[in-house]
Amino acid sequence: MTPLLEQTAAKLKRDEGRRPKPYQDTRGIWTVGYGTNLTSGWLSEAAMTQMLMDRLQEVETACLALPIWKDLSEPRKGVLLNIGYHVGFEGLMRFRLMYQALEARDYPRAAAEILDSDAAREVGARYDRLAKAMREDAWV
Predict the structure, then answer these.
(1) Cβ atoms 111, 134 nearer than 8 A
(2) Is a pLDDT exceeding 80 seen at residue 15?
(3) What is the reported pTM?
(4) Which residues contact 21 (CB under 8 A, 6 or more apart)?
(5) Which long-range contacts (CB under 8 A, 24 or more apart) does 60-64 make?
(6) pLDDT tens, 47-91?
(7) Domain ranges in the chain?
(8) Full DSSP string of 38-93
(9) Is 18 helix (H, G, I), strand (E, B) or coil?
C-alpha cells in the first residue's frame, strides 16, 4: 500500500468509525465496517474471501474445543466446518444425533443425521455432498 493510501485509510477509519455488524447510517442506508454501503456497489473477490475465511476461522476455533475433533479426519472436520459456516456453531451443536453418531464413530449414521435436518431440506444438494463426504471419508 502506498503512503498516500495508508494515511488516507487511517483518516477514514477515524472519520467513518468501525462497525463490525451491519447498521443503518444516519440516512437509513445499511452499512458495515468502515462506512461500506451494503446497498450499492460491490465487494471485491479479496474482500469476499477474507470475510469467508474470517467466519470459517471462527467456526474452526469453536470446533477445536469439541472432544471428538482430534479424532476426525480432515474431510470429516471439513463437513463440520461447512455445516458450522452455514448454520453457525450454535446451529451445528443442534445436530445432536449426528454428534452422538460421531462420538460412536458411526459415520453412516452421522451422514444420515446430516440428511435428516432442516438445513438439508432447505438447501438439498449441499447437504447431500456433506453426507457423502462424512460417509466416505473423502472430500467431495
Answers:
(1) yes
(2) yes
(3) 0.85
(4) 32
(5) 62/89, 63/89, 63/92
(6) 889 999 999 999 999 999 999 999 999 999 999 999 999 999 999
(7) 1-41, 42-140
(8) SSSS---HHHHHHHHHHHHHHHHHHHTTSTTGGGS-HHHHHHHHHHHHHHHHHHHH
(9) coil
Residue 61 to residue 44: CA distance in whole angstroms? 26
Nearest alpha-carbon partner for 140 in 56, 75, 74, 83: 75
CA dist., res. 86 & res. 80, Å (int):
10
CATH of 42-140, one of 1.10.600.10, 1.10.10.10, 3.40.50.300, 1.10.530.40: 1.10.530.40
Crossing angle (nearest 10°) for helices 107-115 and 125-136: 170
- Determine the average pLDDT of the residues in 33-57: 90
